[in-house]
Amino acid sequence: MFIKRLFIALILLFTSFHIFSEDLMLSEAEKTWLKEHPVIRLGVGTSFPPIQYVTGEKGEYEFRGIASDYVEILSALLEVDFVIEYGITFSQALEMGQRKEIDLFPCLAYSEERDEFLDFTNGYLENPMVIFANEDAPFIGSIQDLSGLRVADVEALYVYRNLKRDVPGIDFVLTENSENCLEKVAFGQADANVTGLISGSYIIRKNNWSNIKVASPTPYPNTVFRMAARDDWPELAVIIDKALQSIEPDNRNEINRKWIAVRYEYGISQSNVVIRMLLVGGISAVVVALALMWIFRLRREIKRRKKVEKSLSIREAELREMVSEKEILIREVYHRVKNNLTLVSSLVRLQASKLSAPGDVDKMGDVIHRIDSIMLLHDKLSLSHDLKNIDISDYLAELILGLKASWSNSRPGVKILHDTLSTFFDSKAVIPLGLIINELVTNALKYGFTKGSSGEIKISLVKKTDGSFLLSVKNNGTPIPEDIEPAKAKSLGLMLVSNLTIQLKGELFLTRSPETEFEISFPYPG
Hints:
Number of strands: 21
Oligomer: single chain
Largest sheet: 5 strands, mixed
Structural class: alpha+beta
Radius of gyration: 31 Å
Shape: extended
């Protein structure tokens, strides 16, 4: 907090000629009022980043965000001390404002209910209202499409009241704050949340919730944030409004740039087109340069061999350089394969979305999971320093995380637990292992558990005393029928498991009781 106050003070000291568009014109009565009220009590939002939020624990609180920066500038400009009431919720702060126990709210949206006990300034920040939705949620083209869906919201916010009035049939999932709302959407406990683009994008980016998308704009006007003073102090609202108006637009924009790093655009902007063209041209130039460099070096090598054989140390150095270049090319190949698989996966997902028969949709889902397991390996290889060996524990953890996300809506009660040792396997062995686990877990979720049921799937990979490895996938769901044998199975999934086990030079064992368990013993793949 001290550093932040020092920063604001330095701004006011060294840029006082540029922060304010004109001298702050206060009347003598207003100046006298400020001297008589040197301390102003503030009520702030605690969980609305990046606009306003509070960090720290009891005794170590810190008010942060866009509103906080404005408060610091106003404090220095008006020479008053703003004291924040910490340790209360935003709803409690509003109740205290009604009782005149809080003097000023530095960031508040106007409503008729609040206007009964507060005087509002002009707006100083706008936040477009949009619909954020889980990527697996039904199509949402407007707020009317929210009818029948689970919508996370905060009861104290005006958006909740508007939706309740405008869209009948919404199943509201009420939470304490905006971040909890988006968390419900990310983990499939709600389908959508209506909130500001600025705050919502900040929370999603901070938590890396990549499965949340902006589904649609809303008919609601942009949320205009203002400052609001208690209505029995009419002088305060006028003074604050004058101080806000005196701040230069460039300095307002500087505060916004500090906290806001998001753009909301429809279509493809001209700048994006130029950037992409430059990127494509740059990549093409690099590829041509690499090709010419390669040809030149090959010619030079031929001439060198015709003249004289170099010393062993020089040849070894050249060989290492060539190996390094080969690794770069191989890594590029892995990256391109991963990109192509991503395109294939997207096309399959698009085709699957147009199918109606449940059986066809399930088959397409199985194909997508297999593509994703192979795509994950090539992504790992393209980023790895070692192009031959892969950390099997890290790879399987991400693979299982993807399976959890894919089935979180249809089998939310089924836990997928895994315990794998950290060791490195040859990349040729990782694909069979990934596909085997994908098939066994998918079959267990599909046939071992019904929708709405609960249970556990446990995956383990351990090293045995003889140096070989044992992979186990078991579940406590419906047992596998007695007439099904993996080696003789006609289903594609179990056929893949049997053939991939042979590829690993391993043996497959099936235990049906007390839990269904597949065990695969295989030698170290090198």
